[in-house]
């Protein structure tokens, strides 16, 4: 059982973007940040339900496959689930449509829990107000021996990193400079000690960096 | 003629370190930040005058060779030259001993210029108080058609990047998190546009990233 994180970050370390508008709720920067990931065959099949077999293969797709492989449960923050953008909508069910790609229990950290949401494909969203250690114990119990992913966003991931709870951190460093947003790396001086580090260069200057315990 | 920058930065983007003490004037973090660079055969020969042929070869050494190749002139900031640490010493001649590795005219940007310093091996340090454009014109005139390197530190490099004067930026991203210091990437949103980007993974997780016009 591995506690894993996978994020796309910009060269200057940002894991969120800031140019969302009502007309473009994801924003241009988000497309640029996640471009190589969402272009993979795995993302297209698993998240967009595009089974036409288009999408890239190769290094980026290998990481996209690993993203979903062996997953037993997921933890995410209220921001990633969309609660901050949909505070006043009690019926908000997340960004992922009728078949969220997780297919496992997902625990959404929030100070204002709501009733659990269930989907036919095995995905459940359970809202919990808990410290990282406690949330992790809950997710591990639900994961049936498989991995727990801390999905994001950066505020949540940093909590788990600082608490020393993450066994494997994979970042795809995308060679764009966003200049603003929430940085993944703040106040993590010395994090690398205790990890073995490897890096792999993909197309278009994207770099996959992995810290493993 | 190419205007080039080469820097070692940490994963969290810092190009300076903060743990210098009188006993350890470079500091532990500096050793960790530049470890792969100073271990190369090229650095050992060119900077340390160690001609025993020890030192690493391979990707890191290829970049170290490129660092000195085709160089016609160098620009650096007062901080990199050591003026800030040796303000009260009118005889300070830089960190590099009797044979500084540059072997070309070096222009040191400072608001308090001093007399030019000359070395037998072709290195001269000329102190100038000038805007980036003006300093670059001076260095280009001295470079005899060869490249001009903006050597550092980050305060100086950022000025040249923001002014759009840099043709090629190479960073060795070293997988350590320093947590504090001067960041290379602040306020450079969108810098990547206009550059072609490539990356290459070296040993121990070090990544060489190059932006080329
Ligand atoms: N770059 C990537 O790969 C990636 C991946 C995923 C998401 N994202 C981006 O990340 C953004 C969201 O990130 P974010 O950092 O703003 O927010 P986040 O980490 O998703 O959520 C933070 C929020 O979760 C709740 N929370 C976190 N820890 C808690 C705890 N221990 N107990 C109770 N509640 C807790 C709090 O919300 P409340 O106080 O409101 O309850 C907190 O404000 C989104 O824009 C998304 O696009 C990026
Ligand atoms: N990571 C790397 O690869 C790398 C490479 C080189 C250096 N470094 C590190 O960088 C550090 C120094 O960097 P830094 O950012 O603090 O300082 P810096 O860039 O070396 O020097 C900045 C100083 O240069 C002078 N200056 C800069 N532009 C000027 C202009 N246009 N006109 C007049 N004066 C100008 C000013 O000094 P005054 O106002 O005092 O005159 C300014 O404070 C050192 O610790 C060194 O170890 C790292």
TrEMBL record, chains A, B:
InterPro entries with a match to the protein in the record: DHFR-like_dom_sf, RibDG_C, Riboflavin_Biosynth_HTPR
Gene Ontology process terms (BP): riboflavin biosynthetic process
Gene3D superfamilies: Dihydrofolate Reductase, subunit A
Bacterial bifunctional deaminase-reductase C-terminal domain: residues covered: 2-187
GO molecular function: 5-amino-6-(5-phosphoribosylamino)uracil reductase activity
Protein name, UniProt field: Dihydrofolate reductase family protein
Organism: Lacisediminihabitans changchengi
């Amino acid at each position: 059982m591995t506690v894993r994180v996978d994020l796309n970050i910009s060269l200057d370390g940002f894991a969120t973007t800031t140019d969302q508008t009502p007309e473009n709720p994801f924003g241009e920067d988000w497309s640029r940040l996640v471009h190589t990931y969402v272009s993979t065959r795995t993302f297209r099949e698993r998240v967009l339900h595009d089974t036409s077999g288009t999408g890239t293969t190769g290094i980026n797709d290998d990481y996209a496959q690993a993203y979903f492989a062996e997953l037993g449960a997921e933890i995410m923050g209220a921001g990633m689930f969309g609660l901050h953008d949909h505070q006043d909508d009690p019926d908000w069910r997340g960004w992922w449509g009728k078949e969220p790609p997780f297919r496992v229990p997902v625990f959404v950290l929030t100070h204002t829990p709501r009733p659990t949401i269930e989907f036919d494909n095995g995905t459940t969203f359970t809202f919990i107000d808990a410290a990282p250690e406690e949330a992790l114990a809950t997710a591990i119990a639900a994961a049936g021996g498989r991995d727990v992913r801390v999905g994001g966003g950066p505020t949540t991931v940093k909590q788990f990193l600082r608490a020393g709870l993450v066994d494997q951190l994979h970042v795809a460093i995308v060679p764009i400079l966003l200049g603003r947003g929430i940085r993944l790396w703040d106040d993590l001086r010395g994090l690398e000690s205790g990890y073995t580090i490897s890096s792999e260069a993909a197309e278009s200057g994207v770099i996959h960096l992995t810290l493993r315990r």
